[in-house]
Amino acid sequence: MMSIQVLKPKFHIDECLKGVRDCLEKGWTGMGYKTVEFEEEWKKYTGHPYAYYLNSNTAGLHLAVKILKMHNGWQDGDEIISSPITFVSTNHAILYENLHATFADVDEYLCLDPVDVEKKITDKTRAVIFVGYGGRVGQLDKVIDICKKHSLKLILDAAHMSGTRVNGVCPGTWDGVDVAVYSYQAVKNLPTGDSGMICFPDEESDRLVRQLAWLGINKDTYARSNKGTYAWKYDVDYVGYKYNGNAIMAAIALVQLKYLDEDNARRREIVKMYNEGFKNNKNIQIIPANHADECSYHLYELAVPDREALLDYLAKQDINCGVHYRDNTEYSMYWYANGTCPHAHAISQHLITIPLHMWLTDEDVRKVIKVVNEFLA
Ligand SMILES: *Cc1c(COP(=O)(O)O)cnc(C)c1O
Predict the structure, then answer these.
(1) Residues 219 and 150 in one domain
(2) Would you say 207 and 267 are in contact if contact means Cβ atoms under 8 Å apart?
(3) What's the pLDDT tens digit per position in 235-283?
(4) Best of 54, 89, 296, 328 to mutate for ligand 1, by most ligand atoms within 8 A of CB?
(5) Do 249 and 290 belong to one domain?
(6) Same domain as 328, residue 268
(7) Which atom of ligand 1 is nearest to the CA of 56?
(8) Which residues surround ligand 1 with Cβ inside 6 Å?
(9) Are residues 202 and 101 part of one domain?
């Protein structure tokens, strides 16, 4: 019997291979061609006016912080408020730019708690990074209001939010979101190998991110006189990075995007079964989602009394589960903030991520429910 995985991507293999073959036949596997097509499709799908395809969300978060720092004159040591319940990329992005990560506590959705965000603001605070945990939008609207009130920038780590909407609108496009960054990493809702997208609301930042993700190369000055033998000529006016996405990954992304809404609808169906199956178990705390009917549900997690024992028990029944995430202030790099987010700290000891992906059958879901309830009876 095959074991049940916690996260497992499902690819439309023949269509993906056809897209990859297109790239190989054309002899175009790098930046451009399918990367441009995917940017256009992503803009149509989300409503973002600008989108630039990158090799990861991590690279995108770094450039988001960097560009906001450049444009707003932030100094080394200035502070960004972030979440302790996230993949560590979110917080490293702050440190890449010599800024200080301050942590605010999370709410019942495991997203930033606006009340604690406001308490953590100092005269050095410049921005907030909001993580749409598990695809949830949480209290993003309130956090945006706080950012406006205190003249802070808002970066949305939308790694889990591909396909999340609120009343039909992609939250990354809301007024007050200064940049949104998506992930198409191997197990995310729109899986590729590794890649991501950065979406600024303005043309100038979009132009700059394209330049910084491509070594700082500036073709503009010469593009205007792009005649004859000067086509090769460009200037380099920043120390940029090699962060661009490539056509092979974009070929896969273009195919997977066509199925994203269908996939997310199936995720919500599975979540309904889980919620129903666990709602009467007093030993289980379900992590809720607001706007649940439009949530991308990247993860499904429970808070349980003895997480390690449940993980062991499930593994013995061939059900692999995981933990998303360990409180980041427990890591050596962020230990200085340990104790600053009591709710996040407490709940992260009890979180278990149970299987949620496109390979699960209803029978698998019923088995997971039965085994979990058995153990926690
Ligand atoms: C996956 C993830 C990232 C990093 O995405 P990559 O595309 O792998 O760089 C960042 N933040 C969160 C919350 C994630 O889950």
Answers:
(1) yes
(2) no
(3) 999 999 999 999 999 999 999 999 999 999 999 999 999 999 999 999 9
(4) 89
(5) no
(6) yes
(7) 7
(8) 56-58, 86-87, 89-90, 131, 157, 159-160, 183, 185, 196
(9) yes
- Domain harbouring 268, CATH code: 3.90.1150.10
Burial class (CB in 10 A: 0-12, 13-18, 19+), 262: exposed
* pLDDT tens per residue, range 77-128: 999 999 999 999 999 999 999 999 999 999 999 999 999 999 999 999 999 9
Helical (H) or strand (E) element with 249: helix 247-258
Same domain as 32, residue 175:
yes
**For the chain, the helix, strand and coil percentages under 3-state DSSP, each to the nearest 5:** 45, 15, 40
CA distance 197 to 295: 19
Residue tagged 């809720």 (tokens): 288
According to DSSP, residue 108 is labeled T
| Residue 306 counted as domain residue | yes
Asked whether residue 254 falls in the same domain as residue 281, the answer is no
Q: Rounded to whole angstroms, how far apart are CA atoms 319 and 371?
A: 9
DSSP 3-state assignment of 196? Answer: strand
- Residue 362 within a domain: yes
Return phi, psi of residue 114, to 5°.
-55, -35
How do 217-218 and 100-103 pair as beta strands? unpaired
Q: Is residue 1 part of a domain?
A: no
**CA neighbor of 205 nearest in space, from 13, 95, 84, 71:** 71
